[in-house]
Amino acid sequence: MLSKILLVDDEPKEFFKEAIEMEGLGLVLLADNGEEALEVIQKENPQLMVLNLRMPKMGGEELLEILKERELLNSLSVIIWTGWDDCGITQSRIRSNFSIKYYLDKPVDLFDLLDKIKFALNKYSE
Length: 126
Description:
There is one protein chain. By secondary structure, the protein is of the alpha/beta class. It has one domain (4-125): Response regulator (Rossmann fold), CATH 3.40.50. 44% of the residues lie in helices and 19% in strands. It has a five-stranded parallel beta sheet with strand order 2-1-3-4-5, with helices on both faces. Strand 3, helix 3 and strand 4 form a beta-alpha-beta unit. Helix 2 (34-44) packs parallel to helix 3. The radius of gyration is 13 Å and the shape is globular.
């Protein structure tokens, strides 16, 4: 069975979707903000989410808070990709508050992303 991978970003992500699917890593679902992502998570139950932090309507950190409150983070691996960081403060806070292990700075290198996805999915299935 194919893994479901949710890409959440307000910027274009179709290139990454195509690359991930061509690599055979899973079925890629898309959301433009945290609100859309929450709907997709509840409906599709993805195994992995690649999440931007700054987005309109609902940002990534707010989405993580909701998922944590609803205990949905336990069954969802998360990779943060963002172009915004306060000298590592945000990264440290996200990692400690939500136990996020995977973090990529934008612009995202496709090969780094694919490696992180492979690692996250293997870790999830163990």
